[in-house]
Amino acid sequence: MTKYRYGEMTWPEVKVAADEGRLAVVPIATIEDHGRHLPVDTDLLLCTAVTEEAVSRARDRAVVIPAINHGYSPHHLDFPGALTIGAQTLIAYGLDVCKSLAHHGFRRILIVNGHGSNTPFVDIIARLTTVETQSLCAAVNYWAAPGVREVANGLRGSQPRGGMNHAGEFETSLYLALRPQCVDMSLAVPEYGHRPSKNYWTDLIDGDGPLVMMEPWSVLSESGVMGDPTTASAEKGRALFDAAANGLVELIDEMRARAIEPRRDHH
Ligand SMILES: [Zn+2]
Fold it and tell me: What is the pLDDT of residue 259?
């Protein structure tokens, strides 16, 4: 049985994994409020579960790194629960983890993000890793993995451009599929307090409108929800989980197939 969890490996096994050219996959999320019906570990649980499943399906060619638990959530601090780290801290933390992996010989690294507000920072972490090491690093939000959008829109019961946002149909379905005992659907309420307008909306599946901004969460939502969790189900969650894991395997294979070309100095 091939080990695929980095944390379970001995140092000689880590060396072999790097020598085999296996891809290092780094989950990153945050801890923050997710309405009254979902636990504060929603982003972390969903991201790590999907990533672990994907790497287990590609265990001969990837390893999953212990997750970076904390992320950028200062706009959530009006609700009890958020454990935020600063933007510069997050960039430095993620970059140090990726540079360590590069130092140990992992030439290809994929950061899998599970928290929307980490997005610009994981992009920067990936760019800096590629610029500052010999390794190639990319980042992806797990809900943006190939194939997820089609599955999500096929089962969507909530309104487009907002219904599958924070603690909405998408995340609640996944949590129901993974740990239903931790979800209290009697407390789930739909909320569209972020007031989607012509050029502004946020949705995990429909993306963001051209107007990108983030107001304090307490301005946008009374319950902490943005979207419609009442349309969620465990069955939908299982379909989304499978699609996301499949999509990440596709990305793992695409990254591994990509040649790392030497730089050429044209001075
Ligand atoms: Zn979330």
Answer: 95
Closest CA to 172 of 264, 43, 52: 43
The confidence score (pLDDT) of residue 256 equals 97
Distance, CA 107 to ligand 1 centroid (Å)? 30
Query: Percentage of residues in the chain with pLDDT exceeding 70?
Result: 100
At residue 205, the pLDDT reads 95
Which of 69, 73, 71, 76 shows the shortest CA–CA distance to 45?
69
The CATH number assigned to the domain holding 37 equals: 3.40.50.10310
Distance 34 CA to ligand 1 centre (A): 6
pLDDT on residue 194: 77
pLDDT value at residue 128: 98
Residue 265 lies in a domain: no
Integer Cα distance of 22 and 59 in angstroms: 9
Whole-number pLDDT of residue 195: 81
The angle formed by the CA atoms of residues 67, 118 and 160, to the nearest 5 degrees, is 115
- Decide if 263 is inside a domain: no
For the entire predicted model, the pTM comes to 0.97
State the total domains in the chain: 1
Going from the Cα of 60 to the center of ligand 1, the distance in angstroms, rounded, reads 30
Question: CA 117: distance to chain centroid?
Answer: 10
- List beta partners, residue 99: none
HSE-CB for 59 with a 13 A CA cutoff: 10
Q: Which domain holds residue 172?
A: 6-257
Tell me, yes or no, whether 108 lies in a domain. yes
Give domain status of residue 198, yes or no: yes
Q: Helix, strand, coil shares of the chain as percentages rounded to 5?
A: 45, 15, 40
27: helix, coil or strand? Answer: strand
Cα(30) to centroid(ligand 1), Å = 8
For the chain, list residues with pLDDT below 50. none
118 CA distance to ligand 1 centroid (A)?
A: 11
